[in-house]
């Protein structure tokens, strides 16, 4: 990778390094944040997933004894690997939503310098390609070798392994380019056709829709693992409109293992890839040639429309102000939406898995432990995700407004934060769980579980409020040197164990009134105890707006530049 970068022109190399560090939104991190280390942790998570996937493939291959079973195993594995690659690239595209197109900072800083627009474009594409390549390489670190070995072992010559290896990596790269290019095409032509103010309003909605579409296509995608299933008339519309099956056909065409009657899937893959590449290229060129002036001439901040506005009430005036401030901050801030989207991915994943199982049959099913575990995980991830984004500031200048207007006791602010968590995390997940439970029976067991879920959500809200003595989105954030990959798997492992244990205790209690009353009494006492504890602590608490103590000297991180160390401006002017 470094040798490829050295082949680029000097201006492109300088801007590439700057843009690569800005793929992750710097406004969500502190000045001391280590972006390369963050990208390394992201890569290590994907490598670990690849190792688990390779181990699962090797274990599953030994269980196939018949030719029909082997074909079903191969097709299921290929579809799972391709759809998983498209899911990861789609999430990367949502995270780096605006990183490929020029923003106001790029135009204001680079326009006075002798830097051509195509130089900025090449540097942006190189930075985005580096992030995309990192995701592709790390996610296929182990599976990219294990799968060609499994497929190639059934060929009579060594050529089978190399053919499968080349087909696998080309298909993964092509699927990644298709997903990323589709996002770029939609963004580019939307920015070209709409005024900048309307585009800025629509961009946030498109980002949320893209996130939901990527997750929906992954979790609702059916698995068709036999030639008979692919030839069934009711499955033709799925094959015709699902991109993962197009690249499944493309892989088998390159591998020489696709039946002739399914060759149209590969043709759709080639056509879709060509259209997306042409669309992304055209949108990028036109945006850098025509819309860079819009970035300077039109404002980024969209003023609100004048007229009569009605706002709902959420208790007292202070509680209403904090709840509305939290809701609008979450909907208007891109970095907060992206972070919250990681947790919502788990919530929507469990919800969509329940929907998929419900759509597979029209008959009502008895309430089972899987549904209890799914709703428990949804509630926990929603509360934990909202609590995590509450710690990130929306604008540090807003701190002074809350400091100057702090005329009420601290417990009033903590109560408002509690209501924000309940309304924005617990209530939506509870309603989603209620809708998902309509396909289960008996109704009294569903009502009992929903009552338990509401109390569990209250308990997690109280747990998240311990030590949280600040207004959401107003405290400066200074992240520590946390091993994200370790914390992620430990959190998910412990949470899964807790969900399974809770479901094991709750399921027998739903049909036993005595045990259910005891369970509710225990949960209610725990929730009330945590509520009283937080309320007592909040009475003597002091709201804080800085992560660092006041007596610590804050440095700007500026260092003297040696004469022999060229800066970006010197490099650009030398050209």
Structural descriptors:
2 domains, disordered C terminus, 575 residues, 22 helices, mainly alpha, two-stranded parallel ribbon, globular
What does this entry look like structurally?
By secondary structure, the chain is mainly α. It has two domains: 2-297, no CATH class; 326-539, no CATH class. Helix content is 71%, strand content 1%. The chain contains 22 helices and two strands. A two-stranded parallel sheet has the order 1-2.
Distance between the termini: 24 Å
| Shape type | globular
The portion of residues forming beta strands comes to under 5%
Class of secondary structure makeup: mainly alpha
Largest sheet: 2 strands, parallel
* Strand tally: 2
Strand order of the largest sheet: 1-2
Work out the radius of gyration. Answer: 26 Å
Mean pLDDT over the residues:
79
Number of domains: 2
Order of helices and strands: HHHHHHHHHHHHHHHEHHHEHHHH
Helix content estimate? over 70%
> Uncertain spans, ≥5 residues at pLDDT below 50?
27-33, 549-554, 556-575
Number of H/I helices: 22
Short description:
The chain is mainly α and 575 residues long. 71% of the residues lie in helices and 1% in strands.
Topology overview:
Layout: H1 2-6, H2 10-21, H3 35-61, H4 67-95, H5 104-110, H6 117-139, H7 143-152, H8 159-193, H9 196-219, H10 227-231, H11 236-241, H12 243-255, H13 263-297, H14 317-332, H15 334-359, E1 365-366, H16 369-390, H17 399-404, H18 410-436, E2 440-441, H19 443-464, H20 484-509, H21 513-539, H22 568-574
Parallel strand pairs: 1-2
Helix pairs in contact: 2-6, 3-6, 3-7, 4-6, 4-8, 4-9, 4-12, 7-8, 8-9, 8-12, 8-13, 9-15, 12-13, 14-18, 15-16, 15-18, 16-18, 16-19, 16-20, 18-19, 18-21, 19-21
């Amino acid at each position: 990778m470094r040798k490829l970068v050295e082949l680029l022109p000097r201006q492109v190399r300088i801007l590439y390094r700057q843009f690569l560090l800005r793929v992750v939104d710097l406004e969500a991190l502190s000045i001391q944040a280590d972006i390369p280390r963050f990208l390394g942790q992201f890569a290590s998570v994907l490598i670990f997933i690849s190792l688990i996937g390779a181990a699962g493939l090797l274990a599953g291959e030994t269980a196939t004894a018949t030719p029909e079973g082997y074909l079903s195993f191969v097709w299921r594995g290929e579809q799972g690997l391709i759809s998983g690659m498209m899911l990861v690239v789609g999430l990367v595209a949502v995270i780096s939503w605006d990183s490929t197109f020029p923003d106001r900072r790029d135009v204001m800083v680079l326009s006075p310098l002798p830097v051509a627009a195509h130089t900025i474009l090449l540097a942006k594409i190189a930075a985005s390609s580096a992030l995309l390549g990192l995701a592709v390489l790390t996610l296929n670190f182990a599976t990219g070798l294990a799968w060609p070995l499994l497929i190639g072992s059934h060929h009579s010559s060594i050529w089978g392994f190399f053919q499968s290896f080349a087909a696998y990596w080309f298909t993964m790269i092509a699927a990644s380019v298709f997903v990323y290019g589709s996002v770029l095409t939609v963004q580019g032509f939307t920015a070209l056709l709409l005024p900048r103010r309307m585009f800025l309003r629509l961009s946030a909605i498109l980002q949320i829709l893209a996130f939901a579409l990527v997750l929906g296509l992954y979790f609702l995608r059916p698995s068709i693992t036999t030639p008979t299933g692919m030839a069934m008339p009711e499955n033709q519309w799925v094959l015709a409109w699902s991109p993962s099956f197009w690249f499944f056909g493309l892989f088998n065409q390159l591998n020489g293992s696709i039946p002739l009657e399914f060759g149209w899937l590969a043709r759709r893959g080639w056509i879709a890839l060509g259209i997306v590449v042409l669309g992304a290229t055209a949108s990028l060129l036109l945006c850098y040639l025509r819309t860079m002036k819009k970035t300077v001439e039109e404002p980024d901040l969209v003023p609100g429309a004048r007229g009569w506005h009605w706002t709902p009430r959420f208790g007292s005036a202070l509680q209403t102000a904090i709840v509305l401030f939290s809701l609008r901050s979450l909907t208007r801030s891109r970095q907060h939406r992206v972070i919250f989207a990681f947790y919502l991915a788990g919530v929507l994943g469990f919800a969509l898995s329940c929907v998929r199982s419900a759509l597979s049959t029209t008959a009502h099913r008895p309430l089972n432990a899987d549904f209890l575990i799914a709703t428990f995980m949804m509630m926990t991830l929603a509360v934990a995700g909202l609590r995590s984004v509450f710690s990130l500031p929306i604008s540090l200048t807003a701190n002074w407004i809350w400091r100057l207007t702090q005329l009420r006791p601290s417990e009033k602010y903590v109560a408002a934060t509690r209501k924000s968590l309940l309304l924005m995390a617990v209530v939506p997940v509870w309603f989603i769980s209620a809708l998902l439970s309509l396909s289960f029976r008996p109704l009294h067991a569903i009502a009992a579980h929903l009552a338990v879920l509401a109390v569990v959500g209250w308990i997690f809200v109280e747990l998240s409020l311990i030590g949280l003595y600040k207004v959401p989105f107003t405290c400066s954030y200074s992240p520590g040197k946390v091993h994200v990959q370790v914390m992620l798997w430990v959190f998910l492992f412990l949470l899964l164990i807790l969900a399974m244990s809770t479901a094991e205790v709750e399921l027998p209690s739903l049909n036993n009134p005595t045990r259910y009353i005891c369970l509710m009494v225990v949960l209610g006492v725990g929730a009330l105890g945590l509520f009283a504890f937080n309320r007592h602590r909040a009475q003597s608490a002091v709201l804080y707006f800085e992560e660092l103590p006041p007596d610590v000297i804050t440095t700007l991180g500026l260092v003297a530049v040696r004469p022999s160390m060229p800066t970006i401006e010197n490099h650009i002017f030398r050209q």
